[in-house]
């Protein structure tokens, strides 16, 4: 069976790093790649950043590889996450030998709830200059992310599971989140620690080695995973998966980087590592491992793009990775 | 005129660091100190963590110095911030010569909105396992914090002002926040940058030296200021002010630290530096500067508590600071 992988390069360096990742995937698996459009450049032409066709193709594909979008990022990625039915945003943040990092001992995976919290989009201006947003936390979504998080920790050999929250202030909503996590943990016999999200931000900087899998409400996961990018040297190396019941979307954590777009020097590692997550998700565990170790060996001693202090191009780095496969 | 300063030691190390700060304040100014109770130990006795009397005394005092509370922290500090009419939470985070820091070049001041956002406490369980929280952002509170932030930057010589937000997701509420800040900046001719709070979390780790004053919605300020504590070596050195129109409350950013409470080895620096902020607020700018430089010189070459690698007691450190005044 040939799986269909939708590729959506998007804007800016998305157009450079997605083809790089496709060439790596092409070297290890036999996917049918279909391309679709999204982003600022589409909005400029048609008035809509995410064409219906792209949404539907993502919903129908076996998996999607997304690059980045510029100003329209939220208009593109939030619906695309819905298109694939994603409930979990998986964001590993680890350092690599040979890459300078503030905290080389970092090996974290954020399991971010991907459907609710402040992302529900329920807002209004209830009076002149008085605005509200409704944050939603449900038992269903919270149990689902907890189940996914504990299972991920077990399968990937992480002993420490931490649950981020701010239930001392958001008593009912994050109280619900904690209760749901507790119910799942109890049922499955899982151990974990609760951590206030503010204190956790500090502890991740001071003692990252004490943490492994971090299960988070939506916005906390957004912030804490970017913070972790700072611990390992920036966004150029961070892949992510938006996992649904039977579909998923993979994307680098970085954005469209308009400052370097078009120069051919974007670091393709985050997108290629997102491709490795895609391989794993579709059942190609061995191929995923091969891609990961090729990226690692090039990061350690191969050509580097300028963000890592080198002067190699996206193509040079990609070719070196393909060579290692 | 003798100002009345309410002191509320609270729980745990609050009972050790507040007396330390009072002895420093006593050495440089002529305040009338009044003591009041709050915290876990009060709740255990009376069922309420914050007695009405403490609330009223805080409202009536010229300023309050608070230590820390344990499990009841939110029940104590959130009403106390209201008692003094605080709209701005001011949290400087800087490193000190001689103190190990992940990012010694850090010199940040978070100006956190202190009345609304997710802290409004409007929550409900609208159906079984379905909970909501209403986040509130108003033009009034946003303009007020912006005015305070720009003025603080001018008066304290910070060139860079950054406004944290997540308006790509919280479009109406953080959109309001940004509009209000923009109106204030326009009226006063102030320059600033907007920064998405997730990206900012990363950039503060990678390039703290590019930031100065950071104006934040309430919860973002809570998280980002704790993150900054990680950059400068932990919470033991971070003071804060909760500033109102004509009253204010000062507190260390750290908590009650039950693990070391009662041992007499808590680092008093954060509370003494909070005392310096109190002095400055009440018009004793020179005395505030004297206290700050005494703390700096002891941090650089005096006795140290165990959190900074020393084996001195709270009393030793406090005595050394008083000696330097
Ligand atoms: C673009 C934005 C809507 C998005 C998010 O907040 O999820 C981004 O920050 C991310 O982390 O993928
Ligand atoms: C105790 C808690 C309510 C408080 C807050 O969230 O403001 C604390 O984290 C702080 O930063 O002072």
TrEMBL record, chains A, B:
GO terms, molecular function: 3-isopropylmalate dehydrogenase activity; isocitrate dehydrogenase (NAD+) activity
EC number of the protein: 1.1.1.85
Similarity remark: Belongs to the isocitrate and isopropylmalate dehydrogenases family.
UniProt-listed Gene3D superfamilies: Isopropylmalate Dehydrogenase
Positions of the Isopropylmalate dehydrogenase-like domain: 4-321
Protein name: 3-isopropylmalate dehydrogenase
UniProt keyword terms in alphabetical order: Oxidoreductase
BP-aspect Gene Ontology terms: isocitrate metabolic process; tricarboxylic acid cycle
Coiled coil region boundaries: none
Transmembrane regions listed in the UniProt entry: none
């Amino acid at each position: 069976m040939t799986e269909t992988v939708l590729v959506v390069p998007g804007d800016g360096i998305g157009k450079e790093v997605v083809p790089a990742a496709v060439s790596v995937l092409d070297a290890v698996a036999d996917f049918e790649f279909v391309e679709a459009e999204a982003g600022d450049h589409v909005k400029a032409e048609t008035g809509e950043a995410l064409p219906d066709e792209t949404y539907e193709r993502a919903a129908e594909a076996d998996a999607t590889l997304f690059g980045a979008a510029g100003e329209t990022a939220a208009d593109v990625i939030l619906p695309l996450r819905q298109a694939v039915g994603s409930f979990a945003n998986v964001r590993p943040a680890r350092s690599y030998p040979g890459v300078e990092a503030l905290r080389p001992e970092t090996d974290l995976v954020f399991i971010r709830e991907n459907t609710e919290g402040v992302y529900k989009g329920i807002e209004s201006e209830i009076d002149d200059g008085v605005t509200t947003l409704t944050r939603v936390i449900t038992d269903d979504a919270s149990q689902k992310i907890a189940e996914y998080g504990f299972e991920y920790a077990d399968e990937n050999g992480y002993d420490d599971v931490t649950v981020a929250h701010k239930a001392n202030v958001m008593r009912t909503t994050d109280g619900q989140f904690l209760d749901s996590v507790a119910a799942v943990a109890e049922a499955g016999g899982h151990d974990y620690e609760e951590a206030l999200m503010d204190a956790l931000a500090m502890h991740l900087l001071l003692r990252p080695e004490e943490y492994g899998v971090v299960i988070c409400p939506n916005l906390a996961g957004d912030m804490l995973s970017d913070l972790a990018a700072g611990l390992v040297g920036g966004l150029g190396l961070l892949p992510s998966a938006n996992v649904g019941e039977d579909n998923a979307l993979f994307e680098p954590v970085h954005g469209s980087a308009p400052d370097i777009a078009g120069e051919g020097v974007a670091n393709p590692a985050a997108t290629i590592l997102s491709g490795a997550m895609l391989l794993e998700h579709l059942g190609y565990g061995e191929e995923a491992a091969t891609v990961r170790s090729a990226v690692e060996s090039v990061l350690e001693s191969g050509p580097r793009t300028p963000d890592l202090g080198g002067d190699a191009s996206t193509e040079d780095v990609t070719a070196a990775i393909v060579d290692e496969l």
